[in-house]
């Protein structure tokens, strides 16, 4: 009786092996549709510097694969479809050809979901075709990065690709405006247009990007006012607008940010930032921000970098001591002439907290000197620079020196 279970186990093992072998055999018999295969050969041939690529990889989804291509088996009929193409330095062989271009044969790859081309267009000028990129309806991820010869305008037709989740066109030579049609990309989670030559304003239609989590627009020539539409994007986690000519106030509500960088900003730092519990980095340096630094920023549990340097902030720095100690050099408030630090805090802080000591704290005065006398209009009286009038006789000067000396000694004992 004991032999029966052993027999059954052996039978099941052999059956599984046979099924697996049959499945592998079936997959090896699956081919690509001829039109799609020829389209792939044309797309790769227009990019890579290897004229015989098609002969080396006649079955790119099965027997002769290439690391920059991914395929999946479709249903009814069960044939292979190309779903991803990646060209970049990490796929080093073969390199891009000097006259690399984007072929219209991409339209023969209707199942393509990912297209990424890095550091390929470096000599010959390449322009993004509006008709081509508006018709790749299956695309979910489009990354064309670090291509110095990729120029022209950003095609408004990209707004038709409503399945897009990632659109990255950074570090190219693109010009013109950000298309308002981008507001149709309701599934877009990441938009990176940084390091180009874009101009104009951030379109108000950006409020349509309801799924947007990352917005990278730094290092362009964008102008205009910071749109309050950003405050309507409830999934935003990171915003970088630096190195533009954008100006305006920070929107009071900025979703669930964990990183914000902006230049050209004015007005106070809104207290509402303290509600962004996911905020990990806040860079507001080199702006014209005014007012005080909200102390409740120190209560943000995940904030690990705070740069408020080179603004017009004023008042006493009231961030909690444990917050200051935790951030160390990652807290930078230099270049705010109206900002001061209590004597208590000033005795043990980072050089990135270069501020003057607040007057009247711990019995100390700024720089341990008597404050310079000013009249109520903020101007120095005539006697301060040596000229004296009849209302302030020279005989009174020794008394003033004595009063200042006594005051200084009295304060030193407090």
From TrEMBL:
The keyword Acetylation does not apply. Its main location: membrane. InterPro entries: Leu-rich_rpt, Leu-rich_rpt_typical-subtyp, LRR_dom_sf, LRR_R13L4/SHOC2-like, RLP23-like. Keywords: Cell membrane, Glycoprotein, Leucine-rich repeat, Membrane, Receptor, Repeat, Signal, Transmembrane, Transmembrane helix. It is a single-pass type I membrane protein. Belongs to the RLP family. This is Disease resistance R13L4/SHOC-2-like LRR domain-containing protein. GO terms for biological process: response to other organism. Residues 112-258 form the Disease resistance R13L4/SHOC-2-like LRR domain. PROSITE patterns: LRR. The keyword Transmembrane applies. Residues 1-20 form the signal peptide. One of its GO terms (cellular component) is plasma membrane. It is found in: Cell membrane. It comes from Gossypium barbadense.
